[in-house]
Design brief:
The structure is a single chain. This protein is mainly beta. The protein has a domain at 63-157. The protein has one helix at residues 2-21; strands at 63-64, 67-74, 79-86, 90-93, 96-105, 114-122, 130-135, 149-157. Strands 1, 4, 5, 6 and 7 form a five-stranded antiparallel beta sheet that branches. The protein has a three-stranded antiparallel beta sheet with strand order 3-2-8, with no helix packed on it. A hairpin with a 7-residue loop joins strand 6 (114-122) and strand 7 (130-135).
Length: 158
């Protein structure tokens, strides 16, 4: 115990001696008050080109067509059928009834794609149906979830 108290006392004496040799901390700023920064520049809006030279954004509208070309696959029998259905008409493949309500394509200056709004029903009561848009270039985005049949949009025609 005597050793511990002697060691603590010598530590306090050394710390006090060290504190006397350190310079005092002052609150003076790093720069003298006479130095001033230039006022911040105000942001000027970028000059706008004349309205006539601004290119128009590409048209994103779809072009309506009069008929849809569809492909239906019977997964059990491996039968494949492709047929054209006019907008507003209905087609039949096995137990499926396919009504084409609209068929649109992209304008010629856009990447080619076709979309058809279809209503698909099955004559079997427990079979799933479909109602919505199907895209030719992305068939998995919106598709008929049927255990036997697969329906795809190939293209739209006028």
């Amino acid at each position: 115990m005597r050793f511990a108290s002697g060691w603590a006392a010598s530590f306090v004496v050394c710390a006090m001696a060290h504190a006397q040799t350190m310079p005092a901390i002052t609150a003076a700023p790093l720069l003298p008050p006479s130095v001033q920064f230039p006022p911040p520049k105000q942001m000027q809006p970028a000059p706008q080109p004349p309205a006539a030279s601004v290119p128009l954004p590409p048209q994103s509208a779809w072009v309506p067509q009069t008929a849809a070309q569809l492909q239906v696959l019977d997964k059990v029998n491996a039968q494949n059928a492709a047929f054209t259905v006019k907008v507003g008409q209905e087609a039949q493949f096995a137990s499926l009834n396919i009504l084409v309500q609209a068929c649109d394509t992209r304008p010629p200056d856009q990447p080619q794609n076709a979309a058809a709004f279809l209503t698909i029903s099955d004559s079997h009561n427990d079979a799933p149906g479909f109602r919505g848009w199907m895209l030719a270039n992305d068939p998995s985005l919106s598709m008929l979830q049927h255990p036997i049949y697969d329906v795809r949009v190939i293209s739209c025609r006028s």
